[in-house]
Amino acid sequence: MRRLNLISLGQGDPETRGHWNRKELLIDGVLLQEHLKRATKAPVELVSPLGWVGSDDERHYLRQLLLMEKSELPSGRQVLLVCPLCASLGCGCISARIEVNEGRIYWSEIGYENDYEAESLILYGFMSFAFDLNEYEAALTGRPGGARSHVGSVRGSADELGLRCAGAGMTWPNEWSPIGAAEGAGRFDAELKRELAREHPLHDLRVAAIGRRFDRDEVLFQVLDGGTRVAEVHLTWSRKREPPPWPLSRVYETWTAWAMDAAEPES
After folding, report:
1. Which of 9, 43, 82, 264 could disulfide-link 23, Cβ–Cβ 3.0 to 4.6 Å?
2. pLDDT by residue (tens digit) across 223-235?
3. Residue 62: half-sphere exposure toward Cβ, Cα within 13 Å
4. Angle made by CA atoms 110, 39, 4, in degrees to the nearest 5
5. Gap between the Cα atoms of 192 and 200, Å rounded
6. What is the CA radius of gyration of the chain?
7. What DSSP letter does each residue of 201-257 carry, written as one string?
8. pLDDT at position 147, please?
9. Where are the domains of the chain?
């Protein structure tokens, strides 16, 4: 089995150009730039945008690393390091392909590219990293325990299958709370099953209700496939099959991705 790497945030090299208060990505306690330098035998002057770009840009950067937003790069890859003076992708950046699989998150095909030339990508094909998804999310969001921890008060079919419930032991967004055993969570599962037409994207997925929003009819379901996905669903409570796209739904790769989206101010 492949050894997992450990990601953390730390102080940048004060001799590198750019803002002194930035937060850098460390892999196994070593700056990402140092890993790249060792692999390419060349200095790397690009830096993390954390801690010095505007709050909206920093949030966008984090959401990309958590696979919550698409990249603006032509390749669709996620940005790791940027220009230390302006953070413009036109100056070039270090990027990677980031994927989630079976409780792990992988950085692969790390390379250099810009945002205006589709053929600008230069891959460092000999470098990749693998992280525990819980530890990865905890390091980037500052939430101890990551997006998933041991099953606490959250219950449902996920417990019966011996799976860890997404969001257990975590602080839920405003208006949301986990579904406890006393609430009869099976009624949410049953209602969803009644409403789903065969053409609905959730029809063939096995799910279990784990959270609800009390001021609306939104319910959060965990996808019971051994992965990390959750689905937010707006139930109609019609007690009958609905024509797609009803009940309205959105699937997220992780509980943390959903929680950050749910915490966004409503327009």
Report:
1. 9
2. 988 778 899 999 9
3. 23
4. 65
5. 11
6. 21
7. TTTT--EEEEEEETTSSEEEEEE-SSS--EEEEE----SS---TTPSEEEEESSHHH
8. 38
9. 7-141, 157-262
